[in-house]
Each structure stands twice: as C-alpha cells, then as structure tokens.
Design goal:
Layout: H1 28-41, E1 42-43, H2 53-57, E2 63-67, H3 73-81, E3 86-90, H4 94-107, E4 112-115, H5 119-124, E5 133-135, H6 155-164
Parallel strand pairs: 1-4, 2-3, 2-5, 3-4
C-alpha cells in the first residue's frame, strides 16, 4: 500500500455535492425525448459558460429558476399558467429531465428551458440581478450532522440568491 506523501497534495479534491446521483434507467420514451427534444429545450451547460436569458428565450420576460424539479410536474404547471414568465429548471436526475421534456412537448410550452448539471456551478454562470425568483422545494434531506456539508441552504448559497434575484423578486 502506497502511503500518501507531500507530493500527493496537488491532487484536486472532488467538490461536495448537495445531491447524490442515483441514475435510474430512462424509459424508451424518455430516451427518445432526450434525442428529439433536448436540442430544442435543453441547455448544454459547461463550466465557464455565461448564461444569458435573452439568448435562451429570445425575449425579455422575467426569469424564474427552479433547482431540483424532480419529474417537473410543478414546473410545467407554473410555465403553462404563467406565460409572461420564462422558467429555467435545473435537475441532475436524467429520468426526471426526460419526463419533463415529454411534458413540455405535450403542453406546447415555449417558456421553459432545462439544464442537467450541478446547480451551484450554473448559478455562478448567471449575471447579477438576472432572476425574478427562485424555487427550491424540499431542499435538504441531509438530517444527520455528518451530512451538513451537503446541505444546499448555506450562507454561500444565500449570498448567491441575493446576487441573482433582482430587486422586488
């Protein structure tokens, strides 16, 4: 067994995530949705990219962001009943994203974009005062003390929210 020495300190630590990625299998319909609909409604986010809502939606409607939309039923409902708002949903669970892609098509929604990436990294790519609101339902299932580091609602996250949500948002 090799013992770590001082030269091993340069190895970058994996960042702590506020989620555990438990990938379920995509149904055939969800897989087809990714192939057909992701190019239309999905945002292929990469670290270092800057997000601009005008480019995403081709309008100046206020933007509301939801982190962790699950299967997207509530996000689709909001988008359907509030066409004067644009919505961005962030989710890492691909079957949920596939489900929402199908729902977007079914409802004919045009004011919703999806990102399948770590939300914290996406937030860093957004300009100041770019959101009218943010939705985060059931955010922290990490009840044990040793899991506190995984909780998304921490002071740094609150500062990001303050930076992103515009006055009156």
């Amino acid at each position: 067994v090799k013992m770590p020495d001082m030269s091993d300190q340069h190895i970058k630590q994996r960042p702590i995530r506020s989620y555990v990625l438990r990938q379920g299998r995509l149904t055939p319909g969800q897989q087809r949705a990714f192939e057909r609909l992701w190019p239309v409604w999905g945002v292929d986010f990469t670290v270092g990219q800057q997000l601009n809502s005008r480019e995403l939606f081709d309008n100046d409607h206020p933007v509301v962001l939801e982190i962790g939309f699950g299967n997207g039923e509530s996000l689709a409902h909001y988008a359907l009943h509030n066409p004067h708002f644009n919505y961005v949903g962030i989710e890492v669970h691909r079957p949920g994203v596939g489900h929402l892609l199908l729902k977007i098509e079914e409802l004919g929604l045009t004011n919703l974009r999806l990102i399948c990436h770590d939300a914290i990294e996406v937030l860093h790519a957004m300009p100041d005062d770019s959101l009218a609101g943010m939705m985060l339902f059931f955010p922290d299932p990490w009840h044990k003390k040793r899991h506190r580091k995984r909780r998304i609602l921490q002071p740094a996250f609150i500062r990001q929210m303050e930076r992103l949500i515009n006055k009156g948002g």
